[in-house]
Every structure is written in structure tokens, then in C-alpha cells.
Queue: 4 jobs
Job 1
Amino acid sequence: MLLLDGKATAAAIRAELKEEVAAGLAAAGRAPGLAVILVGEDPASQVYVRNKERGCEEAGIRSEAFRLPADTTQETLEVLIDELNGRADIDGILLQLPLPKGLNSQRCLERISPKKDVDGFHPENMGRLALGLPGFRPCTPAGVMTLLERYDLSPSGKKAVVVGRSNIVGKPLALMLGAPGKYANATVTVCHSGTPNLAEECRQADFLFVAAGRPCLVTSDMVKPGAVVVDVGIHRTDEGLVGDCKYDDITCIASAMTPVPGGVGPMTIAQLLINTVISWKGRTGIAG
Ligand code: NAP
């Protein structure tokens, strides 16, 4: 079985970005800039933000963190977003979710300029994805697509099943897989909590993507022999981190699979860095 090593692939991407940034620095006149906003003290979010800052540093991106207290008002947050929208040295704005209770995340996400929306959550960028137009793509599904491409695994002409239809993973991933393109062009089925026979649907998949947020939901009897399995889920349990798939059992059946941790997680951050560098190139006019 082929291990789809997101950790190693992400490290290679960071090294490539570092070279790209160094090559464009003189012409651009400045390094790429990413603003990261973290509201409150959610421990998981703090880890994610630290990892994103570390990734930026390795790729030659200047990250600026804004750590705000949990009682920050909607207005204060929106004023900060407006300020960052207007700053010439900021190419991307990332608002770490979830926000503390009382804050309206959708309103904040819509406040971020679509031109700096490197997380790809703004309705304009989601609409562009649906229409097949260029724009920032959400980092987790785009990171999954990048991982497939790096391993030369093409779902073109194959049957893909996506378990989950969230706005940040399942829905955009299904759109990306079903779009034309060498590393897309799949026939896509989307499953959710209303799907009557999940096992049967999953067994049809040549490419199975699981983003249900349910630990070990997908077991080996639900996987077609030789399938490529991408596990997006991540859960902290007494036995350590686990995904949405029963990893050990499925590795005996699948032809390729992502581990948890070390699969999709690092690719999500790598994609954020890619999006930031794309924004920097466009905004400084050095894009080829
Ligand atoms: P979410 O918003 O909770 O969405 C879960 C989706 O799965 C929903 O569409 C839900 O259906 C569906 N679902 C839940 N139980 C199901 C079942 N038994 N059978 C079929 N479908 C089921 O979760 P998310 O934000 O997409 O995240 C999914 C997982 O990925 C989580 O474990 C999350 O931590 C992880 N994640 C990882 C990364 C990363 O970088 N590695 C990034 C994002 C998310 P309904 O729509 O019908 O409710």
C-alpha cells in the first residue's frame, strides 16, 4: 500500500515556496504577508495558529498574528479586518475558526476582501469555485487535490465518493473532484447523514474521501479493494489522534491511503501558504 505522506509533501512544498519567494523578492519589493487572527483561547486553535506561523516562517512568508481576547466585540473584529483589507503589505487574511460564542463568523468571513481571502471561504470565492472560475480555493480540499497530483493519482474517469458535505471540506471537495482537469474529472457521489446505505455507497468508490467528523466511521468492509482512501477527519482520543477511517484495517485493502496525523492536516497548511504566495505574486505584479 502506498502511504500518501502529507507531512513530507508539505515540507517539499514549503521548500519550493521558499525558493519562489526568494526569487521574486527583489522584483516584488517585499516578502509575502499573512495576517492571522485568533480570538479567544481555544487550545486546538492555538496549536493550528502556531503551526501556520511556523509554516510561514519556513516558506519565507511574513506572518503577523493578532491574538484577541474572547470578549472581543463583533465591531472590533470587523474594524481589524477592514484595516487589514486596506494594508498594502498584507496579501492574505486568515480568521481562525471557531470564533467564541456571540461572534458572527459568517459576517466576519464576508468582511474579508475576496482578494485576500486565502482560506477561500468568502462567498465570492466559493461561487467562483462552483462556476469553474479562478479564485482562492478552500485549503483543506485544495490540499487534498494537491496531494493526489503530487502522487500522480488521477481520479479522472473514476468513481469518487465524498462522505460529508460541509462548506469547508465536503462540498468544495466534491466540486473540485467533479471539475474538468487531469487530476479531477471524477464522477462524484456526496454522502451525508441522510444517506441510507453509506457502506454500499463507499464500496463503489475508486477514490474515497471521508470528512464526516466521526472517529473510525469507515471500516474495511466499506472499502473497495484497491481504492485510494483520503481521511480528512482528525480526533483526539485516549489512544491518540485518529481519523474518520479505521486506518490499520483499511491499509490491508486500499492501494493508497493518508495517515492521521501526517496526511491531510499538513497539506491544509501547505495550501494556505501556496494561496498566500499566489496572492502576493498577483498583488505585487510579479505573476508570470
Ligand atoms: P462537519 O461540518 O461536522 O461536517 C460533517 C459532515 O459529515 C456533514 O455533512 C454530515 O452530514 C456528515 N456526516 C456526519 N456523520 C455522518 C454519517 N454517520 N454518515 C454520513 N455522513 C455523515 O465537519 P467538517 O468541518 O467537514 O470536518 C470533518 C472532519 O474533518 C472533522 O473530523 C474535522 O476535524 C476534520 N478536518 C480536518 C482538517 C484538516 O486540516 N486535517 C480540516 C478541516 C476539518 P450532515 O450534513 O447531514 O450533517
Job 2
Amino acid sequence: MAMSTQNQLIKNFSMDDLIRIRGGRKLNGEVTVSSCKNSVVAILPSVVMASEIVKLYDVPEIKDVEILKKLLGLLNIKVTADGDELTIDPTEIINVDLLDEDVMKLRASYYFMGALLGRFRHVKMYSPGGCNLGPRPIDLHLKGFEALGAKIKQDGNVIEIDAEELLGDDIYLDFASVGATINIMLAACFAKGRTTIENAAKEPEIIDLSSMLNKMGAQIRGAGTSEITINGVSRLKGCIHDIIPDRIEAGTYIIAAAACGEDVTVKNVIPQHIEALTSKLEEMGVKLEQGSDYVRVYGNDDLKAVDIITQPFPGFATDLQQPLTSLMTKAKGDSHVEETIYAERFKHCKELNSMGANIDCETGNSYIHGPTPLHGTDIFATDLRCGASLVIAGLMAEGLTTIHNAYHIYRGYDSIVEKLRALGAEIE
Ligand code: EPU
């Protein structure tokens, strides 16, 4: 970006869009992980399928949740918050068209497609937005709806999906897509007969959503495996649900602790959800202690270069590749990141290079040559996990780092500034 455009951008943002970090402080103490963004953003739209009140506990305070609450409001669903508890009353729902710009502010608004199609056999809405990670088609979602009997019309940015009736079918996904698995699962809850999703995604968020839907009376078996079976029902009742901890937030704090910590305990973690990360960190030389619901990280400045390949769960999560890259700048030798999910998810590398990193990038790959000390400067969060990687880099860097476009970070990290400050970071 030309410097003048960048300066203009800086002027246009309010102070809320900036995170400032004076790096080099050692992190110590405990940090508690919030509930899972990618679960809650599927759970909230799925509430349109309930005929009774749904109560959710431990809902994270993040921008994506704020936007989804507004979209539920457009459907005449009442959402009442009491701290981190949400009471959602869908009993007077009206299936209006979701032609509101908020739909385009996040990816997960696409879950209204499966949920409203299932409940009302009709949905009309804008295409979803979300982080710019290169092309993010939704063809597998739409093919799945068609297999259940829906007809789809697309006019520019507007998608309209109708079905006289939904009939269960055997659906094979060409790729184990998280979004397509969830969307088809939602619509299939109200399809007549049995739907089977083969080559389904196995992410923990899918298990969390299916366990909530089953409490509501759905009949879903096999979530968390590559074959999910859904026997259709005609009605879903209300329920009370606790959302699982956020494995990507947990991973982000564990990496930050590995980068700048002396002795940090990350609490409210399901260690099995982040095994691909913790085993890679151990290979780098990070000392970890794992309990049933925590990971304790001990600082170590003598780190080895490693290679990672991002893959669907239980492989190394694409969402943690960007935060880990910041730590890799500290490791001795050449690290390699092969990104198989989003070939263009490398915008953080340019920002890290402006802080003194030595990273080469090409489509699908980045090569990190370390160790390189980082220095503070003005940098730009271009997407959520890029933002997380820049926060870690800012903690590691000497001097002052100013992260612009920090709103990307608030989409997915509850109280990140406060949590890091409590660990001893100088951040505002
Ligand atoms: N894909 C298709 N066609 C489809 C759907 C997906 O080609 O119809 C491709 C995508 O282009 C991508 C790959 O399949 O290359 C994976 O996409 P997937 O559908 O699994 O991802 P998603 O549902 O769009 C969710 C998370 C992402 C996370 C990915 C992968 C939500 C709201 N988003 O996205 O989270 O990176 O799964 O695990 O759950 C984030 O939290 O920062 C984030 C981007």
C-alpha cells in the first residue's frame, strides 16, 4: 500500500482501532480462555430452529457475537444478556430477508442459510463476508442444500434458497469443509428421513453444535467423525448449553507465552483439541506441562526451527499458522509453513518483515529464516489471525508497536488487551 494511502487510513480510524504494545516484558501468571468463537457463531444462527427459549452460558464478548445478535433481532428474536449468559427467545420469529450489510461483516452469517432453510423452507440473504483469506466459495454448502431438494437462485450478492420439501440424502463432501458440514447438518435436522454426510469435517466445534442440537431434540450421530448421520425431526425445543473453550484462543496465548513468557498457565483448555500445536511446540524446544484443563508454559530462548502443514482437524489448524509464524522468527534455522486450506493466508508475513523478520512467501508456503530480533513499528492487521500474530510479534519486539485495524482482532478475541496486561504485558 502506498504510504499516503496508509496515512489516510490511519487518520480515518479511531483510537479504538489501535493496539499499542511496548515489547520486551516477560509474561507471568494465569490467563483463562473464553468460550469458542467458531462454536458460538454456529450456535447463535441455529437458535432460529428452536420453538422455545435457548440459554447459553459463557458467551464470549466478541464483535462477531454482537453482529449475530443484531441479525437475530432482525428476525424478531429477543436476546437478553446477563453478564456472559444469553437468553434467546425465538418464539415470535419472523423469517424476513436478511438483506442487511451486517450479514457481510462475518463469515458465519451463512449458517442462517441452513437453519432458516430447515425451519421455513425459504431463505433470502446476502452472501457472507469474513476475513479476506483469498477465495472462499460456498459451493459445497449449496450443493448439499440442492441434494436435500432445495432450489437456489443467485443474483449478484443475493442468494435465495427455496424447497417445497427437504428429503434426506447421502451427501459426499469433496473437501471436509467446516462450514458445509455444519450448514448441511442444520438443514438436514428438518429434512424428512435420513441424511448422511460423508467426508464430514471433524472439528470440535461441530461436536459442540451437534450436542446442543441433540439437547433440543435433533437426532445427529457421528459428529466428530467423517460420517455424520441425521434423522430428520419436525420440531426442536429449547435447551441450556455451555459452549466449549476456544482452542484457537488457547493456542494463541500458549504461543505468546512460548515467545515471551517465564511461567504462564493457560486455563480452560481442552488439551486434546490442540495436540498438533503442543507437540510442534515441544519439537521447537518449548517446555510445557499439561493437565486435564490447562497448559503451563515455561519460557525458553533456545528454540529450533520446525515445519508445519495446515490440515483439517486433527491436523495443524490453519488459524494457528499465523500466530506460530511470529514465534518461528525466534527459532534458529529455517522453518517452513505449508498452508493447504487457504493458499493466500500470508498477509501477516509482510507486516512481520517490516518488524525485522526474514520471511519469504509464495502461494501456499512461507519460509521463515531465523532467528531475527523484531523491532516495533506501525503495522496493519489485515484479518483476525494476522492480528493475533502481530500482537505476539509486538510483545516480542523491542520498542513500540502500533497495530492498526485492530477491530479484526476484537472479532474473535474476548478482552485480549486486558488478559495480556494481567500477564504483565505493556499493552493498551
Ligand atoms: N471450500 C470450498 N467450497 C466450500 C467450502 C469451503 O472450496 O463450499 C474451501 C475453502 O475455500 C477453504 C477450505 O475449503 O479452502 C476450508 O473451508 P471451510 O469451509 O472448512 O472453512 P470455513 O467454514 O469457511 C471455518 C472457520 C475458519 C477456519 C476454517 C478452517 C468459522 C466461522 N470459520 O471456516 O475460521 O479457518 O473453518 O478450519 O468457523 C478464523 O477463526 O479465523 C477462521 C477463519
Job 3
Amino acid sequence: MSALRPADRIGILGGGQLGRMLALAAARLGLDVVIFDPDPDCPAGRVAAQLVCAPYEDLAAVARFAASVQAVTFEFENVPVASAREAARHAPLRPGAQALETAQDRVTEKTFLNAHGAQTVAFRPVASAQDARDAMVALGAPAILKTRRFGYDGKGQAVVRSADEAAAAFERFQSRPAILEAFAPFRRELSIVAARGADGAVRAYPVSENRHADGILRESFAPARISAFAAAEADRIARAILDALDYVGVIAVELFELEDGSLRVNEIAPRVHNTGHWTMDACAACQFEQHVRAVAGWPLGDPSALRSARMINLIGSEAGDWPRWLAEPGANLHLYGKREAREGRKMGHVTLTGPLSRG
Ligand code: AMP
């Protein structure tokens, strides 16, 4: 496909904060964004050239939307695969439906990763309470039971320490298909955000260190203070995944760093990612610009860090601190325009930057 031209339109399935920041980056590059989201008041719709409001499952609406743009992408991984495939019949879909399908199911995802040289923790699919018990015996305690699909920000997960606990957690999750994962005794959580262009070129951002609480990202720090070996390994893993999926766009790979310095992939997100927000204030070309470039079929930008960065999420009522952050010298405040500060909801973030320490 030929590349997009300035004033062309990119369609984005999903209108949350990621869509909003993508739309702003696209606007700066002279591209218009059309957002598809069922919520007429969604954060991205209010900064986009156009908002199409319909359920994600409405294939006719998806078809009309895709036919009205020159390329389609998505900002969340739970877009129904049938809708993504419908969009792809009318415009290039970047990344493709295979990336979505792989990331939507934790068992498919881990099986794919292991097949492409990216190690994960040991795991077992769980389809019954008895499976949960057997998997617990096989993997040992502690372990984590997660629903295979539709988990995010730590939802649908339970740490379990015995076969009884594993079976009870499975039943608590309404006996939905699940996965039991060995608990990773990690030293740190890391992630690498990387992009692959339509020409197959890959550019990776420096690795970031991430701190979660209750399954929700609280803070990222980048570039991570890791060995050159670990950085190279993260880069290798990201490239292997991008190439295996013939991927176009930005991807995030969440990693556990174990005590011996080796890495295990936790999960992949086939989209721009919260652990890459720091790139907006510290890199030559941020993750949102990078994704827009890739989707447009344009050359990728420079992912180098110009500064070190600490990104702090503003979750729920923490967003009420915005006047304090505005008054903080050097703090870069980003608010997503959400009207209701519900508990656990990502309302905005702040990035503090500093000099780049040279190893
Ligand atoms: P996830 O939704 O899979 O990204 O998990 C959310 C968070 O739970 C991760 O960022 C980790 O802090 C923790 N976690 C998830 N899976 C594991 C695991 N297998 N071992 C240890 N911690 C985990």
C-alpha cells in the first residue's frame, strides 16, 4: 500500500486516553483522526476530527468507518477480532488482526511467545476446578490464576497458595477459561516499547522500570538501570515478536527481571502503552508519533532518550492534585479529560525529567 499523505485520515478503534494522545500526535503531523467508540463523551473523541459512536460489535458501522479513512488502528486490545477483520476489508489495519488475537488470550499469547524465543513463566491452561488443582500441583505454590481473556489492570487475577485456593479462585471467576501461572520471583518489572514500520524497520525505546500496585501501573522510570546484557536481551525479544507477527505499529512487551538478571515476558500489548508515556517528554519522537508514523507507512522516528524520566500515573482522586503539579517547576502534566475520577481509573500522568546518566 502507498503511504498516507498529509490531511489523510487514520481511523482508531477505541477512544480512551491512548486514542486521545494518538490523535494529538497525528494532528501535529498533519493527519486527521476518526475515533470509533460507543461513548459520545470519550476522551479521544473530543480532540479528533470526527467521532463515530457505535458498539464495537456493529460490523456495518465498522465497515463504514473503515471505508472513510486511509488506515485503521486500535488503542485497546479487546477490540472484537471480527470487527478488526471487517475493518481490514476496507482499509489497511495496522497492526493486523493476528496481533490482536494473540494478545487477547493469555494461553495463546504465552504459547506464541515461547515458540518465538521469548521465555515466559511456566503455565497451564485451566478449564475446570480439577484442572486448577492439577495445575497447582504441577507448578507449585505460589501461583497466579488469571482469566484467559479480558483481564486488565490486575482484574480477574488471584494469587493462590494451595490446590483448594486455586479451585476456589477458578469458581470465583465464574468458571471462565483461565490460566495458572507460576509466580515470577522478580527483582524488577521492566518493559520495552518498540515499533516496526511498514518497511520492516524496527526501532526500540530504552527499557523502562515499572512499579505496579494492585495490578495497576503507578510509576515508570527510564532509561532503566539495567545491564547492557539485559537491555540487549529486551531488544532481541521485542524484535523477535515484531517480526513473527509481521507487525506494523508500536508494541509494548512487559518483562519480569529475575534475580539472576534473566528476563521473562509477562505479556504483550499490541498498542501504545502506559509504560511508554515518558517518551512524550524525554524522547526525540514519542511512542504516539512513532505509532502514527508506522500506521501512515512513513519512516519511523528517532526513539533515543534525550533525558531520563520518571512518569507518575494520576489514578482516581490523585488527579485532584493537578493544581499542585501545575505549580511544580519542570513537571509535565498530562490530563485525559475524564469527567469522573472513579477509583482505579487512570485520569492523567506527570513526567519529571532529569539529565541522562551515561553509564
Ligand atoms: P498482568 O495483568 O498480567 O500484567 O499482571 C499485573 C501485575 O501482576 C504484573 O505487572 C505483576 O506485578 C503481577 N503479576 C502478574 N503475573 C505475575 C506472575 N506470574 N508472577 C509474579 N507477578 C505477577
Job 4
Amino acid sequence: MSETDFEKPDPHDFLGIDSLLSDEEALLRDTVRSYVENEINPHVAEWWDEGRIPHQDLAAAFGELGMLGMHLEGYGCAGTSATQYGLACLELEAGDSGIRSFVSVQGSLVMFPIWKFGSEEQKQSWLPRMAKGEVIGCFGLTEADSGSDPSSMRTSARKDGADWLINGSKMWITNGSIADVAIVWARTDQGVRGFIVPTDTPGFSAPEIKMKASLRASVTSELILDDVRVPEELVLPGVASMRGPLSCLNEARFGIAFGAMGAARSCYETALSYSKEREQFGTPIGAFQLTQRKLVEMMVAVQRGTLLAIHLGRRKDEGDLSPEQVSFGKFDNVRNALEVARTARSVLGANGITLEYPVFRHMANLETVYTYEGTHEIHTLVMGQAITGHQAFN
Ligand code: TGC
Ligand code: FAD
């Protein structure tokens, strides 16, 4: 084959990454992509502007599509591969990080701990309804004074007869005010335990956090637990240490490594299309060398990050993905996505600061993604410890 026989690379898939996906993976990716294009993209800027999401409609639709707890086996869950779950996160986050959050909290942070650490009765009782979107969950780990260091949590639970009494508060909890059930992590005399707390339990309240400038198409709340009484049947029996909540984070961080590349892809594609139409000095801005450099940097970052995510997906599917490798994915893909979003914003000039285009919304959202699920600095230190053997958190 001579050089002239090669086809020109596709600007939307420069390295031909699609060829790495099986037919099944591509089909799932296409299904989620078309759902996002038809049902999310036309409305999400308005939801973001108004600081709300139609959570019941979304839960039902995602349930129907089999996307809630999709990588879990049994109990009404779809049982897809990890790579398929990641690809779904990527497509959802191409719509909005808040929409990906909605799905990843439900699947990775609420259903996963019940699936992994719950009793058979708990699994039978909660997972099928959560998979259908009939029950929405939230995950309460962070507290006002315990963010990066959740093991310093103050929320506590103590035995009172046959029940447990939980007291304390959680902060920055996605879906808190709209949840039917909260997984609350609390210190006990047996170690850190996970409690399945129905949100209509007396003493439980979840005021919404307002005035957010990021992740606005997502509900974020405080959880207040004032003598909340739960029976022993609602304690997760399978874990009594920080390993419980931290294991859930591995699942959600994995989804973010993919998801961030969805937001980045949306920014790159918006900037590419804009640069072909917008003219200044009588020339499309995409014809200027400085703009081409920006477009190429963005394209390379998106392709590289997508390859990384798929590599992590393959390792996870083989059962060989360590938490430190998940940190690599979250660390590198989120920082690169944020850089892509900022660059795309500059390509759009003044239009880049409006919600008419998705770029500023993604850029603002990615500031949250940089911080939640372990800040960029925490993932730096996780990998730092892995390569030096020295723990540098304190
Ligand atoms: P350490 O003393 O090292 O370990 C305590 C126990 O946990 C185990 N462990 C893990 N297990 C599974 N996966 C991991 N990644 C694990 N890391 C540690 C460890 O083996 C030990 O088990 P055991 O059985 O011996 O007791 O832990 P540490 O308390 O010193 O923590 C280390 C550190 C700083 C890495 C950890 O605290 C951390 O990751 N901090 C960041 C906190 C964070 O990411 N919070 C996220 C909150 S949830 C959220 O943001 C949701 S956003 C949702 C959305 O909208 O998408
Ligand atoms: P801090 O821990 O106070 O960190 C502040 C700064 O100090 C950061 O730059 C951090 O990297 C740095 N820092 C801290 N420790 C070190 C160190 N040892 N070395 C170097 N630098 C350090 N939590 C949940 O439990 N459930 C949820 O559903 C959830 N959803 C969220 C949704 C949103 C929109 C947001 C913004 C947050 C959410 N979180 C949730 C909380 C999130 O996980 C925390 O914000 C995050 O873990 C960081 O904690 P912090 O905000 O208290 O920051």
C-alpha cells in the first residue's frame, strides 16, 4: 500500500479508536449517544441555568435503558462489562457531568455497596427497584470538616436495643434532597459501617445546597441525621472499615476517567465546528495557525485520554485494575479535560461564555469533577505513594 492509498484520519476519531470496540460495545455506545443527543442536549443548558434536573423522568428513562447499576450482575441489573459502563459514562458526560453523576452515584455509589457488602435480603429488596429507577439513592461520606480525609468523620452510630441510632451530618451529597434512600457511612464501636437509610426516616433531612456555579444540572445537598433510628437489617453486614466507602469510590472514579473524555470531546467538537464557520480578517479562524494549534492539542488530548480509559476498562474487565491505576485515569483525564474545555472556550471568543454552546458549562462542571471523588492532589499522592513507597497525606 502506498502512502497515497491511506484514508485521511477522521477529525472525530483521528486514531481510529472505534476499531478497538466490539460490536456490542459500539452498539451500547451508540444507543447512549443517541439518547443524549435527543433527550439531554436539547434541554440541559436550561436545566443547568435553572439549577435543576427532571430527576424522576431521567431515573425512569435510565432504568428503561438498563443503565442503572449496569455493570453489576443479577438483581435486575444489566451485567455489562466495565468497558461498556465506562463508554456509557463517556457519552452521558458528553451531555453534562451532572447527568453522568446522576447515573454513577446510583450505580457505583449506592447500588454497588449493597451488591458488594449487602445481605441477600438487602440485595433482593433494593437493587431491582434501583435498577428500574423507582428508587433513587445518594451516598453520604463527605462531611463539612472531613473531605479529603473521610476517615476523620464525626457522624456516628450506636446500638440502642435492637436498632442503631445515627447522629451527625454529611455535606456535598449528590442527589441528597431527591433521594429515597441514603447510604450513610458512620463510625461505630465496630469500625466504619454503612447504613441503608430510607430518607423518610424521622430525624433525617436533606436541605439542598444552592448558589452553585458548577454541576448545576445536579442536586447537591447536606444530610442531617438527628437520632435517626434504623434496624439491624439496614446495616451492610459485609464491611466494617474505610474499605467499604473507598471500594465504592474505585467504581465511580473509573467511570469518571471515561466521563471526563466525553465532556472534553464535546468541547473539542464544538470548537472545531465553530472554527470552520467563524470568520475574522476575512478568513475562517480555523485557518489561523494559532487556532489550529489549539484544535490539535484538544484533539490529541481527547484521543489520548480515550485510549487510556479503554485500556483501564480492559484491565478492569480482566479483574486486574488496581485503585492506584484508577487514580491515574481520574488524575490525568480530568486535568486534560479541564484544559481542553478552557482552550475550547477561548476558540469560541465571547460566545464561549454563554450557555448557547456547551463549552462553558462543561468547563464549570469539570471544576467539580477535579475536586470530587478524590481531589487532583489526593490522586497525586495515591500515585506518589505507589511509586515511592512513602505516604505523604500527613
Ligand atoms: P487507608 O488507611 O490507606 O485505608 C483504610 C482501609 O481502606 C482500604 N483502602 C481501599 N479499599 C478499596 N479501594 C481503595 N481505593 C482503598 N484505599 C484504601 C485499605 O486497604 C484499608 O482497608 P482495611 O480493611 O485494612 O481497613 O485509608 P485512609 O483513610 O488513610 O485514606 C487514604 C485516602 C486519602 C486515599 C482516602 O481517604 C481517599 O481516597 N480520600 C479522598 C476522599 C474522596 O475521594 N471522597 C469522595 C467522596 S464521594 C464523592 O465525591 C462522590 S461525587 C459523586 C458524583 O456526583 O459523581
Ligand atoms: P478539602 O479536603 O478541604 O481540600 C481542600 C484543598 O486541600 C484541595 O485542593 C485538596 O486537594 C487539598 N488537600 C487536602 N488534603 C491534602 C493533602 N494531604 N495534601 C495536599 N493537598 C491536600 N461527597 C460525598 O460523600 N458524596 C457525594 O455524592 C458527593 N458529591 C459531591 C458533589 C459536588 C458538586 C461536590 C463539589 C462535591 C461532592 N462530594 C461528595 C464531596 C467531595 O468528595 C469533596 O468535596 C472532596 O472529597 C474534597 O473535599 P473538600 O471539598 O472538603 O476539600
